[in-house]
Amino acid sequence: MQLPSSEEIVDDLAFFDDWEQRYQYIIDLGKAIPGLAENERTPDRLVKGCQSSVWLVSRIENGLVSFDVDSDAVIVQGLLALVLAAYNNKTPKQILDFDIEGYFQALDLERHITPTRGNGLRAIVAKIQELARRSIN
Asked: What residues are annotated to the active site?
């Protein structure tokens, strides 16, 4: 299954009446991500700053950056899907230009996740933006 776009996710989440339904939608998005094979879950791919384990693999093909991600926590896998919807298969410039703060505000996400999860989400975003900056230079 291909993930919906970031705009579609914002629209989809607005459809739900309560956060329990929204959490389930986010978890379902995470289940659509294939994850990584055990041998790809290496220490050098761990994202620092996350409470749960999060692995990130990036590559550039034809000028587009794509990511494979995995987590040992179901809700974090869903949060990774939200990030992938914003950043996957984009140019480094598109990644750096994307208004991630506006996206998270539109999702009304940070009021509904723990501060620790919020910090982890920011660590993932920072890592992706760092990879995009390095690929431009």
From this structure: 50
